[in-house]
Amino acid sequence: MAKxxxxxxxxxxxxxxxxxxxxGGGTAxxxxxxxxxxxxxxxxxxxxxxxxxxxxVAYGRTAEIVRDYVKKGSKLFxxxxxxxxxxxxxx
Length: 91
Description:
The protein contains one helix and five strands; from the N terminus they run ββββαβ. It is mainly beta and 91 residues long. Strands 1, 2, 3, 4 and 5 form a five-stranded antiparallel β-sheet that branches. The protein starts with 7 loop residues before the first strand and ends in an 11-residue tail after the last strand.
């Protein structure tokens, strides 16, 4: 049986200061957005810069390091896995 891989590597800029909290069980959690950019040609052949925003969540000791060292505008290298979450919009 073949195993699958879920790994992502991002290099980008932090969009705003991380939100740091602790769960009821005492686990540290840091959430922040990371912008990555790339260029591509539009239909007319002109280069256009594109930005993708990624929602990042760090746990435990990694969250504490994010709290202590990461700020808005920081250049950050992130390695992890992608997890899709669903939520209901109240509006």
